[in-house]
Write a structure and sequence with these properties.
Length: 229
């Protein structure tokens, strides 16, 4: 396994609600190697999604550092963070967040609207991404003409279309039946093994975690344990 892509040191996150301070993460240290597929597990409220959001640059820490590919993203301004996310991170959520009025192809093209690509270049990149997830023949379909599993594949294609350094997935199979979930997890495994994508996935499902190469357990904002599969 090559060097660490993600390095987290003494990562702490507090939220203030009124006069109350809620401490979600307490000084976490974690290294994630480039090319790894990590499942983040733990009970509800353990800080899994908060940790994922800090790694993906959707949130900023109270204290400590988050480095991705040698860059201290915790020191970025809001504008720098938005630009970095757009270029380096692909996001996959439990609910697919597709725009219902757009075709699969146009949904996949959305992240590319922030780039200088021409319409033809965007279309080509979207077609490649849809082919990668096995949906080239559904490019013209709108979300309501697709199954849940197909919608999640479109969401994964959209996450991949910018060729991100890192793919972060928050309960990507939480809304799917077991058979469809396993197909999606198998797809993530292929993207990791054959295309070298570094993937961090929050899940509460031990069967989903089995598809990853490593599991990291959180409990009450602390690392409980981690292990290889």
């Amino acid at each position: 396994m090559s060097e660490s892509l993600v390095q987290i040191r003494q990562l702490t996150k507090h939220y203030t609600r009124g006069k109350q301070t809620v401490e979600v993460l307490h000084g976490i240290d974690l290294d994630i190697p480039r090319g790894d597929f990590v499942a983040l597990m733990g009970p509800s409220g353990s800080g899994k999604t908060t940790l994922l959001n800090l790694i993906g640059g959707l949130d900023t820490p109270t204290a400590g550092s988050v480095s991705v590919d040698g860059k201290r993203i915790d020191q970025f301004s809001g504008g720098e963070l938005a630009k970095w996310r757009a270029e380096h991170v692909g996001f996959v959520f439990q609910f697919y967040n597709l725009l219902p009025v757009l075709s699969a192809q146009k949904n996949v093209e959305l992240p590319l609207l922030l780039t200088k690509m021409t319409g033809a270049e965007r279309a080509k990149r979207a077609q490649v991404a849809l082919t990668l997830v096995g949906l080239a023949d559904r490019a013209g379909h709108k979300p309501n003409e697709l199954s849940g599993g197909q919608e999640q594949r479109v969401a994964i294609a959209r996450a991949l279309v910018t060729d991100p350094t890192l793919l972060v997935c928050d309960e990507p199979t939480g809304d799917l039946d077991r058979k469809t979930a396993d197909e999606i997890l198998g797809l993530l495994q292929v993207l990791n093994r054959e295309h070298g994508k570094t993937i961090i996935m929050v899940t509460h499902d031990p069967k989903a975690a089995d598809f990853a190469t490593h599991t990291v357990h959180l409990d009450k904002g602390l690392l409980a344990e981690s292990g290889a599969h």
